[in-house]
Amino acid sequence: MKALAGKVAVVTGAASGIGEAIARRLGREGAFVAVCDLDETGGERVARELALDGGRGQFFRLDVSREEQVSQVLQTIAERYQKIDIMVNNAGVGKAGTVLEQTEAEWDAMMSVNAKGAFFGCKYAVKQMLTQEERGCIVNIASVAGMDGVLNRAGYCASKAAIVGLTKSVASDFAEHGIRVNAISPGTVDSPWIQKILAGQADPEGARRQMELRQPIGRMGTPEEIAHLVCFLASSEASFITGSNFVADGGLTAR
Fold it and tell me: Would you tell me how many other CB atoms lie within 10 Å of the CB of residue 123?
């Protein structure tokens, strides 16, 4: 029996990187996956390819920073598939800069997608889950940047710290209703975003090695490793876990 057979999962930012890996992993474990993203080409591809892995999915175009869109898309998914068991708030953006360099527009963009997007996702997932006999769970993708100071990432650190705080608050408010809410804080993960950053360096290979060596484990994480943790938190094996922030960073914050 697959761990998530019969479950309905929603994953935001699912067209690539960590979100894509999460969607694929949940699909392989038997969940129907609503693949949500602004990237229609990537999102449609992921939804199609879920079937090749033995899963099922459908793409929904979604801008997580727009409350009316989040409300409407989650309502459509719930009506079409009768429930939402798993909500993964993964969509995120980042822009380098200290507080002296970060513009208001950059700050607003990161807070809108990262923090406000998770807020809307939690709000409308909880609203639906409260109507269900089997409540459900939420997993928010934060970052070690939301826990420790990361050089040159003022707005990003602030937005990810907000997700950790939001997670604990929602978990506390709705634990008695049977809704579990947890966060995952990845370290450096070899994703399209990291690859884009490296491509812009004078010495991409040297920069990659520096990123790898920041982790005591000696390498970057993979999107699939984060997806495995999401799958665990979404399963019945994590039934006593809520309000926690799980760090998956190869030992980065330990050092």
Answer: 14
Judge whether 27 and 55 are in contact, CB under 8 Å: yes
pTM over 0.90? The answer is yes
Place of tokens 């890996």: 21
**Quick check: 114 and 162 in contact, CB under 8 A?**
yes
Residue 201: pLDDT band with limits 50, 70, 90:
confident
pLDDT in tens, 25-37: 999 999 999 999 9
Distance CA 59, CA 12 (A): 10
Q: What distance in Å separates the CA atoms of residue 196 and residue 237, rounded to the nearest whole number?
A: 36
- Asked whether residue 192 carries a pLDDT value surpassing 90, the answer given is no
Name the architecture of domain 8-186+222-247. 3-Layer(aba) Sandwich (3.40)
What gap in Å lies between CA 136 and CA 93, rounded to an integer? 26
Pull the structure tokens for residue 110. 């990161």
- Say what the pLDDT of residue 79 is: 98
Q: What is the largest CA-CA distance in the chain?
A: 55
- Residues involved in catalysis: 156
Please tell me the distance from the alpha carbon of residue 115 to that of residue 139, in angstroms, as a whole number.
Answer: 14
State the Cα–Cα distance between residues 14 and 36, nearest whole angstrom: 6
Residues of the chain with CATH 3.40.50.720: 8-186+222-247
Helix runs in 3-140, H state only: 17-28, 40-52, 67-81, 104-110, 117-129
Structure tokens at 45: 């591809």
CA distance 183 to 244: 6
Q: Which residue has the tokens 């894509």?
A: 20
Q: Nearest Cα to 143, choosing from 122, 118, 123?
A: 118
